[in-house]
Amino acid sequence: WQVKYANSLTSQPQPRTETFANTSVLNRNGLKPPGAVVGPDDKGLWWPTVPPRPSVDEVEQLKKSQEEAGKPELIKDVQYKLTYGVGNLQKALPTNYDVYRQVVKAYPQRTPLELTLGVNDNSVEKAEPVSK
């Protein structure tokens, strides 16, 4: 949960943001992870229990004088990473939804994937089944 605080929430370009309770779950290969209670959603992701919404008292406690507080917002954040082997080493790089879905589809049959890396090999841009 996040709440924005500002002297004027409508005109202040960069309001202060406070984070309240949060939860997380690690999705791997499209399988239901331990601790997941909701899902899979329309992107094939599983989600943990929603943390408790902050109370009015909790929100007001972090408000500074002259500030107004926005409504608590539930923020869902997804970070995609792909872990793969190079020789005896394992690398984990950021990726995107499309690459994640290719891995999920290939995983049950253990289909080998050819990876296309991004600039300076800092991300995985594409994952395609190896053509035989």
Furnish the topology, listing elements before pairings.
Blueprint: E1 2-6, E2 16-19, H1 56-61, E3 68-69, E4 81-86, E5 89-94, H2 97-106, E6 113-117, E7 124-129
Structure write-up:
- Helices cover 12% and strands 26% of the residues.
- It is of the alpha+beta class and 132 residues long.
- The protein folds into 2 domains: 1-78, no CATH class; 81-129, no CATH class.
- The strands form 3 sheets. Strands 2-1-3 form a 3-stranded antiparallel sheet, with no helix packed on it.
- A hairpin with a 6-residue loop joins β6 and β7.
- The mean pLDDT is 94.
What oligomeric assembly is this protein in?
Answer: single chain
Uncertain residue ranges: none
Q: What's the count of strands?
A: 7
Continuous helix count: 2
* Major pleated sheet: 3 strands, antiparallel
Shape, principal axes of CA atoms = elongated
Helix proportion: 10-25%
Strands side by side in the biggest sheet:
2-1-3
Mean pLDDT, all residues:
94
The share of residues in extended strands comes to 25-35%
- Calculate Rg over CA atoms: 20 Å
What is the first-to-last residue Cα distance? 48 Å
Q: Please tell me the total number of domains.
A: 2
- The secondary-structure element order is EEHEEEHEE
- Output the structural class: alpha+beta
